[in-house]
Amino acid sequence: MTLTRERQAHEGPANPELERRARAQESWRGFFHALPAYVYLILFFALPLIIVFVFSFASRSSTGKPRLENWNLDGWATLTDPLVRTIAIRSFTMALLNTVLCLLIAYPFAYWIATRANKRTRTLLLIAVLIPFWSNFLVRTYAWRMLLDSDGYITQFGEFTGLWGRMLFTLPGVFIGLVYGYLPFMVLPLYAALERMDWSLVEAGRDLYASGTEAFRKITLPLSKPGIIAGSILVFIPSLGAYVTPDILGGAKTTLLGNLIVTQFGDARNWPAGSALSGTILVVMLVATLVYFRTGGRTV
Amino acid sequence: MTLHQGAAPRRRTDRFLTATGWMVFAFLYLPIVVVIVFSFSASSSVGLWGGFTFSWYNRMFHNEQLMNAMQN
């Protein structure tokens, strides 16, 4: 509002006409300041989504090349395929299980970091969580493939003690990879929630003869709920579309939604079906996230 | 923010937390360590240790295409 004030200083008492003009100018300025952000979002966020949406109605030539004519609903019709339903359920179960595993591992971990007395230690530990993620995800997944190999130490140790057998190309192997890939997304919001928590509340609870477990259940857990919700969303959504890890560590034996979409765009050359699939997942996730935030995550 | 004394985890809990913490770190760093260690292996197949060598680094720095790509 500096403009308005300057004009007032120059021209004495406020002129309603001038004031209105200045305000209009001011709001235009705001629009121009935000313009790069609008352009960026439209170009790189909205436009690709619109293209995907348009392609879901396209028809295909005999070789599978998408053609932007003879608009039809064939792409959307593939969604009713029972196979798609099976794959969707499988993907959801896996993503859900991955989220739960991440939460179970990340919570004590984030709690451990957040309860270190020294601020420097906390920062260092947090940076240490992120360092492995500076290297390429694919490289690290291949490293796991080697680690879990039948000749590798992990499998040999498991076979020697009889605790576990083959790891590579099995479901546990895939989950090791998934948890590994998405753990930081759970750790960071949990840490943020726990670190800014008012620990004097726990102290007060303990003073009032709450047991340690009780204080945790009634104070710490509810107060860290925003972190739990944010972390769960951050892990669940990308693990629903994960396809590199199941491919490399699972041996591509089971099809997941991610693989299915990739196949539709690649080998199957069925862009409309792939577009319809990704569009549906997007909408489902959007609605689920909104519902989640509305019901439990007001404070996020 | 300083931790309140009453809120600091009890000893047994703290020991459990510390153990978990280091285990998670081991989990996170295992693949990275493997990649770094095998970058010094003379054998070209992963998982087979062929003796210590710098030859991969030598080859990397003499790979003109890669070096050009890095400068860009």
Please name the defining characteristics of this protein.
heterodimer; A: 300 residues; mainly alpha; MetI-like fold; 2 domains; two-stranded antiparallel ribbon; 14 helices; 74% helix; flat; B: 72 residues; 3 helices; 60% helix
Tell me what the structure shows:
The complex is a heterodimer of chains A (300) and B (72). A two-stranded antiparallel ribbon of chain A has the order 1-2. Chain A is 74% helix and 1% strand. The two termini of chain A are 31 Å apart. Helix content of chain B is 60%, strand content 0%. Chain B contains 3 helices and no strands. Chain B is elongated, with a radius of gyration of 21 Å. The N and C termini of chain B lie far apart (44 Å). Chains A and B meet through helix 4, helix 5, helix 6, helix 8 and helix 9 of A and helix 1 of B.
Structural class of chain B: mainly alpha
CATH superfamily of the largest domain in chain A: MetI-like
CATH topology description of the largest domain in chain A? MetI-like fold
CATH architecture field of the largest domain in chain A:
Orthogonal Bundle
Count of strand segments of chain B: 0
Run of helices and strands of chain A: HHEEHHHHHHHHHHHH
Number of helical runs of chain A?
14
Q: Between the first and last Cα atoms of chain B, what is the distance in angstroms?
A: 44 Å
Helix content of chain A: over 70%
Number of domains of chain B: 1
- Greatest chain-chain contact: A-B, 37 and 30 residues
Low-pLDDT residue intervals, each spanning 5 or more residues of chain B: none
In round numbers, the mean pLDDT of chain B is 76
SS strand fraction of chain A: under 5%
Q: Share of helix among residues of chain B?
A: 55-70%
Specify Rg of chain A, calculated over alpha carbons: 26 Å
Domain count of chain A: 2
Low-confidence stretches of chain A: none
Number of helices of chain B: 3
